[in-house]
Amino acid sequence: MYRDPVESLEPLHSRPALNRTLRVGMIGIGTVGSGTFRVLVRNQADIAARAGRAIELVIVAARNLARAAGIVGEGVALTADPMQVAAHPDVDVVVEVAGGTGPARDWVLAAIAHGKHVVTANKALLAVHGAEIFAAARKQGVAVAYEGAVAVSIPIVKALREGLAANRIEWVAGIINGTTNFILSKMRDEGLDFAAALAQAQALGYAEADPSFDIEGIDAAHKLSLLAANAFGMPLRFADVQVEGITALQGLDVACAEQLGYRIKLLGVARRQASGVELRVQPALVPATHLMAQVNGSMNAVMVKSDAAGLTMYYGAGAGSEQTASAVIADLVDVARLDGVNAAQHVPHLGVHEHATNALAVLPRAAVHTSHYLRVPVRAVSQIQAVTARLAEQKVPVRQVALAAERPGVGPQVLVLTGPVAQGTLDLAVHALQARSEVAGVVATLCVELLEG
Ligand code: HSE
Predict the structure, then answer these.
(1) CA 98, 103, 109, 115 torsion: positive or negative?
(2) Residue 75 backbone class (left: φ over 0; alpha: ψ -120 to 50; beta: rest)
(3) What is the model's pLDDT at position 8?
(4) What mean pLDDT comes out for the span 348-375?
């Protein structure tokens, strides 16, 4: 018999009243924490309307109390001890935005043990200790929300969990570190050198406290492990991500890629294959006409290929104070809505719910199939044929061959674009090529990502 779904709802008066203010304790008040406070105050009426209740910062833990007082003013308690926030009886949710993985783990686990929900933008913490943290949260029936930890202003965690919940996800790929994209854009568009571009990114508050996390690809690998866990229901596998940053990238390859019609971007790629999942962060050639190639400065973009929705793409600021605050507060609004709801109704925690496909293996480097760009320094332009012949002998499919435009002080360079080939096959071929007398220097290789269906 048909029942009107509206009539079958519980009457409002029989539900628990949830209009009490959600009280927030915050650990850390640096770039993200101060932005979160500013946006919470500036947009408090709209945020309360959306959350169904007011959200109020009641206590902050900070290393520099005088500086913290200058940011939050009167009316917010201050402490130098993060554990006081984690255990505070008047706190419903702890926002951890201090960063780092050691003490932050202890604070977050303490907050969970005290029955607090946790919101964090700390991708390193979750990538390294996420399994333990999500298991503890599940046991306690509290939420751990982390939209600000991945691609900052882009609601990609919510897109994967909610908007694309119907889909089998085939791959997720994108630019998920603002600092490196800013550096690559500045070097390409303004001719800035690497160190000057990094210094600007640091001054703008984009870089991690230790910027080697950005430029060596580690920050992107933290985020990729969170994306893959959401996309494929697999456990967090940060330690298995193949990681290559942008420190070894040569300006010559940026220019040669442009000559072939490509741009180089630091991409994170999580792709389902028949025998497992590829997880890699690498500088890669992207067709210059592709939307991903137009993502510049500190902006991020993520593409998702799924079976029903098809290709979708998400674009937004990848670093910044209020840009991250936007995601942190969206998580607070989620917590405000689900606080008091039966814990079984919470969105399942990463990698620990009963349907988690733990069996998905991470493919070793040698088994990853992708197309490649090679730059082969040769003794004479006539050796272009010899290079392609050697690659063919090694079963590397060659799609395009060209000579690099002449540059003062640079010898002849053969540029090759391959078809899809296993990384192991390519490594052997490059090794063999490198030993040939016609090759005059180190062969450079980069992945090519077409980012299409
Ligand atoms: N350092 C990070 C980045 C901050 O540049 O992307 C945002 O996660």
Answers:
(1) negative
(2) left
(3) 41
(4) 78
- Amino acid symbol at 130: G
Determine the atom of ligand 1 nearest the C-alpha atom of 319: 7
Closest CA to 440 of 373, 384, 371: 384
122-146 pLDDT, tens digit each: 999 999 999 999 999 999 999 999 9
Using the 8-state DSSP alphabet, how is residue 235 labeled?
P
Q: What kind of architecture, by CATH, is found in domain 365-448? A: 2-Layer Sandwich (3.30)
Q: Which segments within 139-275 are labelled E, that is strand?
A: 144-145, 169-175, 242-243, 262-273
Question: For 318-355, how does the pLDDT look when each residue is reduced to its tens digit (9 = 90+)?
Answer: 999 999 999 999 999 999 998 877 766 665 556 554 55
Say whether domain 12-152+324-346 belongs to CATH 3.40.50.850. Answer: no
Measured from the Cα of 148, ligand 1's closest atom is 8
CA–CA gap between residue 155 and residue 158 (Å, rounded)? 5
Confidence (pTM)? 0.92
CATH top-level class of 165-317: alpha beta
Q: Which of 219, 224, 246, 281 to mutate to test the pocket of ligand 1 (most atoms within 8 A of CB)?
A: 219
Of these residues, 116, 158, 186, 223, which one is catalytic? 223
Contact between 152 and 226 under an 8 Å Cβ cutoff? The reply is no
Q: Domain segments of the chain: what residues?
A: 12-152+324-346, 165-317, 365-448
Active site residue 116: no
Q: Are 444 and 253 in contact (CB under 8 A)?
A: yes
Give the Cα separation of 186 and 193 in Å (integer). Answer: 8
> Residue with the nearest Cα to atom 4 of ligand 1?
319
Give the C-alpha distances (Å, rounded to integers) separating 357 from 138, 231, 272, 361: 18, 11, 12, 10
Give tens-digit pLDDT for 241-300: 999 999 999 999 999 999 999 999 999 999 999 889 999 999 999 999 999 999 999 999
